[in-house]
Amino acid sequence: EIVLIISMLSKDTEENKMCSTYDQTNKKGIMLIELHDTGIGMNPEYIQHAWKSFSRGDMSITRKQDGAGLGLSICKSLVEINGGEIKAESQLGEGSTFWFTWNIELLSSIAPTISKLPTSSLLEAQFDMQINHALPNFIRKKRILIIHPIKNMRNAMLTYFKIVEKVDAFDTFNEGIKAAQKYKELYNQPAYDIAFIGLYEDNEEEVMRAALKLKALDMDSNRLFVIFIVFPTIEGNGLAKKLIRKLGGTVSAIYTPITRKKLINQ
Questions:
Q1: CA-CA-CA-CA torsion for 37, 39, 40, 45, nearest 10 degrees?
Q2: pLDDT tens digits for range 180-218
Q3: Residues facing 11 on adjacent strands
Q4: Which of 189, 188, 207 has its CA nearest to residue 198?
Q5: Nearest to 154 by CA among 37, 1, 34, 40
Q6: Listed residue (199, 191, 175) closest to 224, CA to CA
Q7: pTM of the complete model
Q8: Which uninterrupted H or E stretch holds 243?
Q9: What is the H or E stretch that residue 179 is in?
Q10: Are 243 and 205 in contact (CB under 8 A)?
Q11: How far is the C-alpha of 221 from the C-alpha of 243, rounded, in Å?
Q12: How far apart are CA 242 and CA 169, in angstroms?
């Protein structure tokens, strides 16, 4: 997976406090951009060399990867010209984290708002308004199940569906099936209306078994809407089509990365 996190901290300086024209205050801010990946990673001892031109760390590991070794050097130069800093953390075989800060000047029309309200709260409020407006009313009453091994994927979908009355997310098929069975025993009705299931090349059989068990918990096995979460590759597309044919009923596929628009279309 690749995760991009953008946050911002307000930066009040003495110059900003003293400078005011026509009741408009110039404010400066610092953006923090973080990029986390689960790629090949690199040995920590090579990180200090990664910022040099034409350097690509351990060539025995990176020789099969594309690139000339100029990207990070250029990034470092641009960030330092802006007055920020750039750093990296990595472990071989486990992925890397790169982050940098970027100095910006806030528009005077939004600077007072930023200074009074935490940026995260402001963005969350805007995001909630978009979701509330976009999701059809009938979806809010549905019961949704998400089974996916990657935590960030589950959290992202939980955020999209935060206004839905019942949404459960699990990292294993067993947990999802147990939750569905328990609900059926307690209330004598199907636990979920929609099930999102992560589909990979190495879990095809598990996915098929789990989907069949979930459908079997319903008197009308075609009522449950199963949606496979798939990588947008030729292999992923072919695998999704194969399982859609085998499973039958109301089945579809949604391709990563998951976005609000894709969910609305589903």
A1: -10
A2: 999 999 998 889 999 999 999 889 999 999 999 999 988
A3: 28
A4: 207
A5: 1
A6: 191
A7: 0.69
A8: helix 234-247
A9: helix 173-187
A10: no
A11: 16
A12: 25
Residue 52 tokens, joined: 């040099």
CA distances (Å), 64 to each of 40, 67, 135, 177, in order? 11, 10, 44, 41
Radius of gyration of the chain (CA): 24
Distance in angstroms (rounded) separating the CA atoms of residues 250 and 232: 21
CA distance to 51, 79, 87, 234, per residue, from 201 (Å): 36, 40, 35, 12
Cβ neighbors of 166 (< 8 A, separation 6 or more) are 142, 143, 144
Write out 183-232 in H/E/C secondary structure. Answer: HHHHHCCCCCCEEEEECCCCCHHHHHHHHHHHHHCCCCCCCCEEEEEECC
Query: Do 62 and 56 contact (CB within 8 A), yes or no?
Result: yes
Percentage of the chain with pLDDT > 90?
45
DSSP-assigned letters across all residues of 124-135: HHHHHHHHHHHS
